[in-house]
Structures are given as C-alpha cells and as structure tokens.
Design brief:
By secondary structure, the chain is of the alpha+beta class. It is 25% helix and 36% strand. It has helices spanning 42-52, 118-136, 143-151, and strands at residues 10-19, 22-30, 61-71, 76-84, 88-98, 104-108, 156-157. It has a seven-stranded mixed β-sheet. Strand 2, helix 1 and strand 3 (61-71) form a beta-alpha-beta unit.
C-alpha cells in the first residue's frame, strides 16, 4: 500500500484494564476490520502494559488514562497514556516483537521520537476532549469525575 494513501480504520472500545495502580480505557484499532476478533487475552495485555508502567503512580500522576492496541499494516503497536498534573499527558509507544520461543511482547521502537500516527491521534484527541469535559471543566478530580471520564469512550471509524 502507498504510505500516502489514507483509509479509515476501525476503533473499538474494550473493557478497561486495571494495571499498576491505574485504570486505563482500552481501544483496539484495526487497519483490517476483520482482525477485530483477534484481540489478545486480557492477561497478556495487562502484562505488556505493566512492562511499560513499571512503577505505581508517582506524585502528580492521575490513576487513569487510556491505551491503544493498534493492529496496523506494517506492524502492531501499543500506546499507553496516563494523565498527569491536571492537564498533561504522559505517553509511551511500543511495537510488538516475537521472541525465539514465538512469544509476542512489546518493546520500545527503534525510532523513539514517534508519538502516534494520524489514526491514533484521532483517539488521543477524543481522549483529550473527554478529559477536559469530565474533569477539567468540572474543576475537580474526584471519584465522580474519574468515573465520568472512564465511562466516556469512542468506537467507530477514524
């Protein structure tokens, strides 16, 4: 496929994941929509996210965020994001790798400066708006605002 060609991708909101003291919204993104039934076991995903979020939340970290598991054309990627210090976002990108035993894990990308592709940026924008509307515009970070944030998800085409 020509890399300058844009084709919409399917995004599905999945059940949230509790990992390393955080609750993360989970999104599956699919370059090939028929792959949407090939999601990994929640235990595998939790283990991979835990390898990214090695420590419990630190000072300024909020215990919520989101992740995107992107089944792309050139490879599969895991993006993990956590809200920090009211209005900032921490973000990690990993690619999948298969080890000698055939196990799939996530590892940092060779190009460490990448943050997201055009499709992932649409989900990140949605999450930005959800955070603003459910937390920042309310002027509070309590359980009700966190629950409202976690309940605000996106599914559709980007």
């Amino acid at each position: 496929m020509n890399p300058l060609t844009y084709s919409p991708r399917l995004v599905k909101a999945l059940p949230p994941l509790d990992v390393s003291g955080r609750v993360l919204k989970v999104y599956g993104m699919f370059a090939e929509p028929e792959r949407c039934s090939t999601l990994p076991a929640p235990e595998w995903l939790q283990q991979q996210v835990a390898s990214v979020l090695r420590e419990p939340p630190q000072e300024g970290d909020h215990p919520v965020g989101f992740l995107i598991l992107h089944y792309g054309e050139e490879g599969d990627y895991l993006l993990v994001s956590q809200w920090y210090d009211a209005n900032m976002l921490k973000h990690w990108v990993r690619g999948t790798a298969v080890d000698a035993e055939g196990n799939t894990t996530v590892a940092p990308l060779a190009q460490r400066d990448l943050i997201a592709c055009v499709w992932e940026l649409e989900v990140i924008k949605f999450e930005r708006d959800a955070w603003v509307n459910t937390v920042l515009a309310q002027g509070r970070l309590d359980q009700a605002s966190l629950d409202a944030y976690l309940a605000t998800t996106f599914s559709g085409w980007v």
